[in-house]
Design a protein that fits this description.
This protein has a two-stranded antiparallel sheet with strand order 1-2. The longest helix has 38 residues. The protein has one domain. 74% of the residues lie in helices and 4% in strands. It has seven helices and two strands. Its main location: membrane. One of its GO terms (cellular component) is fungal-type vacuole.
Length: 217
């Protein structure tokens, strides 16, 4: 009886992409609590700043997917052979950052609209955000299709390969975004240092010293 139970507990959820470890309950429960709190705070902020619905959609979607991903890891901590938990874990924790990244792309395009010096040559703020969101959509397709195929075809590694391709594409777009973000922040810093402009933060007007623009803008 014991040998049967042990062999059953080692069966991969989908035959190819199983976790090779049993997730710990306490850390994942902590992350579920953390993302639940962040999700609640984001709802309150969305009600307060309801006009930024595009940013709100990405943040809420990303936080919800992250929360579901860690809920799935809690399920896997009880039963590592839980196939549904495995699929929810993979899709939740890989798609969540995609939605969060989309909100960041919209945020930097807003900075470019407010600070003309931060705009890149021949690339409008709307086009800037659209290009990165398109890249996120490509990642979304890869990861979503890969997760579906991994759930349907247990012995075929194509699903896992597609998810890995989606993650690699996401890393590429994130690296490019970080580089451009550094350029935009430098241009904003330079503009504030030269013009000593007034910045508006949550409806209040105050002067921002040049070195503090990264934290305040």
């Amino acid at each position: 009886m014991n040998s049967t139970a042990n062999s059953t507990s080692q069966i991969p959820p989908n035959g190819i992409g199983a976790v090779s470890f049993t997730p710990l309950l306490a850390p994942n429960a902590l992350f579920v609590t953390l993302f639940t709190i962040l999700f609640t705070i984001q709802i309150i902020l969305n009600i307060r700043f309801w006009r930024f619905y595009g940013y709100a959609t990405g943040m809420l979607g990303g936080l919800l997917l992250e929360m579901l991903g860690y809920v799935a890891k809690i399920q896997l901590s009880h039963n590592r052979a839980n196939k549904n938990g495995y699929i929810m874990y993979i899709i939740g924790l890989t798609l969540g950052p995609t939605f969060l990244s989309s909100s960041l792309y919209l945020g930097i395009s807003t900075l470019q609209r407010h600070y003309k010096a931060a705009r890149l040559a021949r690339i409008s703020p709307r086009l800037f955000a659209s290009l990165f969101i398109l890249g996120d959509f490509i990642c979304l397709c890869f990861i979503g299709c890969g997760g579906s195929l991994a759930a349907i075809f247990d012995t075929n590694p194509i699903g896992v390969d597609l998810m890995i391709a989606g993650l690699a594409t996401q890393v590429l777009f994130t690296a490019i975004f970080c580089l451009l973000l550094a350029i935009v922040c430098f241009k904003i810093h330079k503009q504030l240092a030269e013009d000593k402009k007034l910045a508006y933060i949550v409806g209040r007007r105050r002067y921002i010293p040049p070195l503090a623009c990264y934290a305040e803008v």
